[in-house]
Amino acid sequence: MSLADHRQSSKNNIPQSNPQEEQASHPIGMTEQSIEKFGETDVPLSDSDIHCLTIIGQIEGHMVLPPQNKTTKYEHIIPQLVAAEQSKDIKGLLLILNTVGGDVEAGLAIAEMVASMSKPTVSLVLGGGHSIGVPIAVSCDYTFIAETATMTIHPIRLTGMVIGVPQSFEYLEKMQERVIRFVVQHSHISESVFRKLMLNTGELARDIGTTVVGRDAVAYGLVDEIGGLGQAIRKLRELMQQNASVWNPTIATDGVMQQ
Amino acid sequence: MILWTVADCEEIMYNMLESYSVRLQKVEYQGIQLLVEPLENGLARVERILSMRPKDFLRSDLSPGMHIPLHTCTI
To answer: I need a labelling partner for A86 at 20 to 30 A (CA). Which of A28, A225, B16, B51 fits?
Structure first.
């Protein structure tokens, strides 16, 4: 269901108030208030069968992060993916990433959900798709990265108390294996190259690892193609058309319904 | 917590131990249960959707961080 349809159906489901009541219930006017207080304007809505999901800032885990963090909350993303998968009006998912990474559990949960969707998915990395953003980006059927965007590949880290026993390291290594395995399985990068990038010394000033810029991400096989919004939507439409012809043989590959 | 992020842990966790009080309130808005933080001017910031209907999560106007008029909610 598109946003416009959804809003319309939501309006249909709730009792309609008369315009005077509506005006009274919005004393200042939400639009003016949005512009004044938050610098937001209303975005023109159009019907679309593509669901756009943005992964921004920190991917929040089981702990609510302090308010200075801009976060993506898995408890909102996961049911949204369930809804997108179930909705007959949504035919494809466009994932847009500009994230610094975050919680491994939450990130992998989102990545696994996206990877297991039956509908076509395309991701676009803009700005940065760092750390746990990497498995999320590669979880889609096809991936794009902007030429100027970067992806940082570095070892995972543990917060809180660490007991100085070998099991601590083994546990951390096991956690790292999960992300490595996922990335290797869902992209064209080899395990040895990914590990090499992850453990590279001498590139990052305060960490070990590698910052991969647009074209390099494609060259390493991490991302499929350099591109922007236009290319991502075009590719998604192409995959949606292929998907439609698989599920409904009456629709030819050119998308025209056969009589 | 296992993190994989380029941001410094100190920056992420800054203020984590200090008790910043967020007054969350459970309300119903257009038939959907929400956890919101009441703000000034009769607005509330959506913290979380408390719904078992997946389609409620497709509503971009109810995404976490969005503002809704508190006076149209029922408590």
So the answer is: A225
- Taking an 8 Å cut-off on Cβ atoms, the answer to whether A103 and B63 are in contact is no
- Whether this model's ipTM surpasses 0.85 comes out as no
- What digits encode the pLDDT tens for the residues B19-53? 556 688 899 999 999 999 998 888 999 989 999 89
- The tens digit of pLDDT for each residue in A197-229 reads 999 998 888 788 999 999 999 999 999 999 999
Predicted confidence band at A63 (pLDDT cuts at 50, 70, 90)?
A: confident
A 47-66 → B contacts, CB under 8 A: 51, 58-59, 61-63, 65-66
Chosen for mutation from A3, A7, A10 (greatest number of chain B CBs closer than 10 Å) is A10
Q: For A93-143, write each residue's pLDDT tens digit.
A: 999 999 999 999 999 999 999 999 999 999 999 999 999 999 999 999 999
Q: What is the pLDDT averaged over residues B4-24?
A: 74
Could you tell me where the beta strands, DSSP code E, fall in chain A?
A: 50-60, 71-73, 92-103, 121-129, 142-145, 150-153, 157-158, 210-213, 225-226
Question: What residues in chain B have their Cβ under 8 A from chain A's Cβ atoms?
Answer: 1-7, 9, 11-16, 20, 22, 30-31, 41-43, 48-49, 51, 54-61, 63-64, 67, 69, 71-72
Nearest to A59 by CA among A133, A9, A7: A133
Nearest chain A residue to B12 by CA distance is A69
3-state per-residue secondary structure call for A115-128:
HCCCCCEEEEEEEE
Neighbour tally for A219: CB within 10 Å = 11
In what helix (H) or strand (E) does residue B7 lie, and over which residues does it extend?
none
All domains of chain A, ordered by start, with CATH? 1-47 (no CATH), 49-247 (3.90.226.10)
- Closest partner residue to B1 among A13, A61, A68, by Cβ? A61
